[in-house]
Amino acid sequence: MKKLLFLLCLPMMGMAQVNNIPVFKGITNQVSIVKKSAATPSCKMKDGSEVRLSNDDNGIVIDMNKNGKTFPFVEQNTDAVYVQVGETDFDKDGKMEILVALRTSKNSYRVLIFKKPEFEQLYTQWGSFIGSNYCEFPGDGTVKSYDADGKVTILKFDENGKQLVN
Predict the structure, then answer these.
(1) Predicted structure pTM score
(2) The Cα angle at residue 113 between residues 17 and 152, in degrees rounded to 5
(3) What is d(CA 16, CA 47) in angstroms, rounded to the nearest whole number?
(4) pLDDT of residue 19
(5) How confident is the model at residue 3 (pLDDT cuts 50, 70, 90)?
(6) Strands (E), 2-157
(7) pLDDT recorded at residue 111
């Protein structure tokens, strides 16, 4: 009986591990959540704002708390099985950017990069990119995107956040 129960649980454990693969690595100020989790992790940013992750019937919710107000930070994505949020100085300009990663499958993710414009209170989406396995942010305005075979692609962006063709 125990063996049967173990064999039935094995596929579910594998699915949980597939959905819980981090998208970006090397960022210390970050949180993540998997779909249908009861957890509500939050990430406190250097400017005092906070990004909170939670789940509802439609998928993963990404809200921002700023100046005592809570509002949706990113439009809800019903296909995301894993969401990761972090903060880093993407281009070493002294200003922190917020990264939001939406993993839709084991080999597919999308990262949104948010910047706060000069003299503004709220962040706006500056750029985005898609990838297959995971990525790193070296801090020079580029992204190292790794595929499942370990092949690295260097992604570059112009000053408006548009991805440049390599």
Answers:
(1) 0.86
(2) 60
(3) 34
(4) 55
(5) low
(6) 24-25, 30-34, 42-44, 50-56, 59-66, 69-77, 82-88, 97-105, 108-115, 124-131, 134-136, 142-146, 152-157
(7) 96
